[in-house]
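Technical note accompanying the year-one report. For the benefit of new consortium partners, we illustrate the data format agreed upon in the data management plan: each record pairs a sequence with a structure-token string. No post-processing was applied to the example shown here.
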Amino acid sequence: MDEINGFPRQLSKGLNFKLKLKKRKIDKIILAGMGGSALPGELLKSYVDLNIPFEIHRDYGLPKTTKNTLLLACSYSGNTEETVSALKEGLKRKIQIIVYSSGGVLTEMAIKNNLPLVKIPSGVQPRNAFGYFFYSFIKTLDTLQLTNKIKEVEETGKWLEKQKFKTCEKECVGRTPLIYTSSLLEGVGRACKIKFNENAKTPAFFNVFPELNHNEMNGFENLNSKFVVFYLKSVVDSEKVRKRMKITKGFLEERRVKVIELNSPGETLLQDAFYYLHYFNFLTVKLAKLYGVDPWKVELVEKLKSELKK
């Protein structure tokens, strides 16, 4: 549990690094990464207001770039083949690149090609390094003078260390969790869904308001007792979204779907986001114990990697 308990300090203490970047105009940022390495980028898009396009790329190669595109190549292990592929393509196109990794092939390529490298601390599960990656991305944008946010990030970490968490993992036993948020917390919803998958070894899904009102809510006519819905509410949710949440909750409860509303004590989007991430850190590890599974192993992921190498 040490890496879970230490999660807030990824923000409050952050990482001490300096980036030596070429003075070059940037007209687009592409964050290339998979799984937990890409998720902080989704929160980043909601949190900062950039005046240039910011795209998250979860695939091999790269999408369309310009000569002034900045590539953020992110892989905790440094061996994620999709991200390695993206980095190789970025080198071919001679665009500006920053690498974020704890080691592996990406680190070797960064050193060989004299690329700016942000070393992410090793020894934690990739999904639990969210804070390190987020802090690093914000510090990068601050260095580029695109944002001025690092102080707020550090203060959020200090705030998070003081919070208490009473979780409801017993409500999840035998049910499939569904995470519902506003679009502002979409990346957080996805991250919490992944914590159920990887920590508790159970299927889970997420969706966002108002989109889910146009499709998913129509699916609750059968097997409703098999689901538990979590509402992740935020102080920055619009009144229109809050109204949709309230009405939809009534529809779901009429159909005997278990709905759990979570209300973060935070006063900002960032506080809400990291409160929920930490809440589900604890909940999913406790749920893993109830299911009798190891929350730290991801055997199927490792088996897939092994098969792909053949």
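Partners are asked to follow this layout when depositing records. Residues 78 and 104 are 4 Å apart (CA to CA).
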